[in-house]
Design brief:
By secondary structure, this protein is α+β, with helices and mostly antiparallel strands. It has three domains: 3-136, 2-Layer Sandwich (Fructose-1,6-Bisphosphatase, Chain A, domain 1); 144-282, Rossmann fold (3-Layer(aba) Sandwich), CATH 3.40.50; 294-326, no CATH class. Helices cover 32% and strands 18% of the residues. It has helices at 3-22, 41-57, 85-90, 144-156, 188-193, 209-221, 237-245, 255-260, 264-269, 284-290, and strands at 30-32, 38-40, 62-65, 69-70, 75-83, 96-103, 106-114, 119-124, 128-131, 134-136, 162-163, 228-230, 251-252. Helix 1 (3-22) runs antiparallel to helix 2 (41-57) and helix 4 packs across helix 6. The longest helix has 20 residues, at 3-22. The N and C termini lie far apart (60 Å). The protein binds iron/sulfur cluster.
Length: 326
């Protein structure tokens, strides 16, 4: 590890101490910036601390920070003190500090540190990329162009609709325990297929949308009007509507959110959107499926089990249908 990366990681340590120190603090000060996004005292404290260390320990280098702007110069530390400040101020652990070093227009390294998730990723030009110290690499998943080719062929052949999804692969699955079969959702491709809120700072939301958008664009350019479906981590009407409005898909599929609250369409239609039980994308339901157990949702499976007529699973410990709502 070179001195630049060592310095960047020590900046990340400082940032973690500051962000975690004020995370979920009842007296956290939050203001609204002119662009209507929030900024907390932790955002400014992290950037100030990084600026102070660069000034003291890295003569001739400068900082380009989200909160205090760009000092200019050929060697810049680029800093987002808290990415996802909205999550941070709401006590949601999916946030990170982003640090990069740019030398004469070329990025030399990058660090993403997500202390509330206990995760850190970094990469250095020529030195590889790492997640918590383990080497990582770009997924070997085939290119979207391959899927576009087949989608166009299927659409030309008259398919009613095209739906694109990403699958977990056996090639990168974890070694199973003795007596168990390999399961393709345990490696990086599995995470991409069904990311949870804990997978990384992007979370599970809409990660497949670029795929459906690319396929839709390609088949429209060929004059084919076959509807294209977007799916994967679509858990709000706002996201669904933006996908349709942006022309990224013609149909939106939402499996886990529809399991979490089978009545969410009716609630939205009735103007009771705040009562929708939002999927937490933890894959609890998927784990039950994997173990060949009856699939229920963690949000409601142990609620009101002694209610009259409630349907229970075979173990009698879980609901099989969502609770009623008045
Ligand atoms: S168990 Fe429920 S909340 Fe969790 S991922 Fe499945 S549908 Fe969503």
């Amino acid at each position: 590890m070179g001195p630049d990366l060592a310095f960047a990681l020590s900046l990340a340590d400082d940032a973690d101490a500051l962000t975690l120190g004020r995370f979920r603090a009842r007296d956290l000060r939050v203001e609204t910036k002119p662009d209507m996004t929030p900024v907390s005292e932790a955002d400014t404290a992290v950037e100030q601390a990084i600026r102070a260390r660069v000034a003291a320990e890295r003569p001739g280098e400068s900082v380009f920070g989200e909160e205090y702007g760009d000092d200019g110069g050929p060697v810049r530390w680029i800093v987002d003190p808290i990415d996802a400040t909205r999550n941070y101020v709401r006590g949601i652990p999916v946030f990170a500090t982003l640090i990069a070093l740019e030398r004469v227009g070329e990025l030399a390294l990058g660090v993403v540190t997500a202390p509330a998730l206990r995760k850190r990723w970094w990469a250095e030009r020529g030195g590889g990329a790492f997640a918590d110290g383990d080497p990582i690499h770009v997924s070997g998943v085939r290119r979207i162009e391959d899927a576009v080719f087949y989608a166009a062929a299927f659409a030309s052949a008259g398919l009613s609709y095209i739906s694109v999804s990403k699958g977990g692969k056996f090639e990168d699955a974890k070694q199973p325990e003795v007596g168990w079969a390999a399961y393709p959702y345990t490696g990086p491709s599995g995470y991409e297929c069904m990311p949870t809120v804990y997978s990384d700072t992007r979370g599970p939301f809409g990660r497949n949308v670029s795929l459906s958008a690319a396929i839709r664009r390609a088949i429209r350019e060929r004059g084919i009007e076959t509807p294209v479906v977007a799916s994967g981590g679509i858990g709000t009407f706002a996201l669904a509507e933006s996908i349709l409005r942006n022309g990224e898909a013609d149909i939106v599929a939402a499996a886990r959110q529809s399991l979490a609250d089978p009545d969410w369409f009716r609630k939205i239609r009735l103007g009771r959107g705040e009562e929708v039980r939002r999927c937490e994308f933890t894959n609890y339901c998927e784990a039950l499926d994997q173990k060949h157990k009856e699939v229920t949702c963690k949000l409601w499976d142990r609620v009101g089990l002694d209610e009259l007529g409630v349907a229970l699973d075979q173990t009698r410990r879980r609901r099989l249908v969502a609770p009623d709502w008045p």
